[in-house]
Amino acid sequence: MIDLRKRFGGFCLGLLANGAWAFTLAAATSNSPAAEPGPSSGLASLYPGDEGIERDERVLFVDDFETGTIAEIGDRWGNVVKKENMELVADGHAATPGVRSLRIRENGHLFTHTKGVDTMFARFYVKFHEKTGYIHHFVHLVADRTPMPWPKGGAGETPPGDAKFSTGIEPSGRWGKYPPPGIWNFYTYWHEMKTTWGSVYEGKAEPIEPGRWYCVEAMLQANSSPEKADGVQAFWVDGEPYGYFDGFRWRTTDKLKINSFWLLYYNTDQPARHNRDPDPDSRVMEVWFDDVVVATEYIGPVSGRPPGGTKKAEPSQSALATPGLLLPPLGAVAFSHDFERGPGNFEGGEVTAAGADGSKAYALPSAGASIWHAFSLPVKESTTVRFRLKPLGEVRSAGVLIWSKKHGDNCRWRIGGLKAGEWTEVEFRGIEARVGWDMRGASLEDDVLDNFKIVFEGGADDRLLLDDFEIRH
Ligand SMILES: [Ca+2]
Ligand SMILES: [Ca+2]
Predict the structure, then answer these.
(1) Do 471 and 336 contact (CB within 8 A), yes or no?
(2) Average pLDDT over residues 375-382
(3) Where exactly does CATH 2.60.120.260 map onto the chain?
(4) Nearest ligand to residue 359 Cα
(5) Which listed ligand is nearest to 465 at the C-alpha?
(6) Could you give the CA distance from residue 32 to residue 45 in angstroms, rounded to a whole number?
(7) CATH of 2-321, one of 2.50.20.10, 2.60.120.200, 1.10.10.10, 3.40.50.2300
(8) Residue 153: its pLDDT value, please?
(9) Distance, CA 52 to ligand 1 centroid (Å)?
(10) How far is the CA of 342 from the centre of ligand 2 (A)?
């Protein structure tokens, strides 16, 4: 654990909790003491050329892009979008111990999960094309209570304090003040943010030079307890502290951990407009990434050469690939109903012979179907509701209502992406059902799950088929 308690000159002195070695994050423009001498400026200094850094217990994820195809890299990260825009190329920064980096053109991302932690550092090398334009969104660190294999949306939505917070380390032109791609800043979402579209934290106003490799490291540290506003975010460029921001009450429960890393390159024509780019058509949107290390302590730039000259890291795997590491495993089946012997306690629809795999199912009208008092379970982290839906007619979405005695209101879950005539598997955790049409209110956590209703908007003849209803606990 890093302790960022001693601040000075706008930045901070970091001490390792074990006291074995310390390092100073000296401010670029302060009269603070000079950096402490010694070999240790971060985890990378212990592993010349990053050789073996992936085996350090403080390291959560490593990719040097030396191993595998784009598809294989996507598999081990867990989620890749726009593979066709990605290429492994022979281009590297001066200190790289490898021979390949990842180039992304136009748009694309890799997204992965680590085990949940209270402090995450992510170091990566990056270069923008010499003719780069302004960039819409970039690399993110995310805390997500109920992570999915892919990044969730959430732009313009204030996340609940027990569900999510995130920060992006992004180049920004600051409304045309700096040439493309701009200066580094944080773009941050959490439950106490004051703006709709995220909050911006500007670091040192040093314009990023296109065509030059940089070592960027971002840190996100959760508040130490739910009531304390002592969360931090900080970033470094080429090992130099560029931004330090504290006083955040990122989360309202310790159960919310930082667990996702999003190597994002997202471009639209919006930043060119916002920054009044005089010549957007001349821009070449390409970026190179390399030597990614995610850890619970400060990593720092690649230090020295690997003993063998070059190295290939043992590639890391998404934590989602290890059951139980990131999410509590699904519990035993506490209730199930397959409609083979009638409706059971379900009301509002009727049993039909058009179920999944030629079985029977429950056909419900838009007014919905419900089940009350057939089960009664205190909602905990692992409590999960699962079922299958098939629309007969043009029903695209449906909604679940679960009455909460604790809140005196319904907690809701929205289901989108339904396709006419096709079965869709639906699964959500009880803690994800929340009060409010927009599901931004209180969660069903610590309440009792003892009822369930599903409704949809549709015509008088539209029906939704429900089958294989199951609650795990
Ligand atoms: Ca490499
Ligand atoms: Ca059935």
Answers:
(1) yes
(2) 94
(3) 333-472
(4) 2
(5) 2
(6) 23
(7) 2.60.120.200
(8) 78
(9) 14
(10) 10
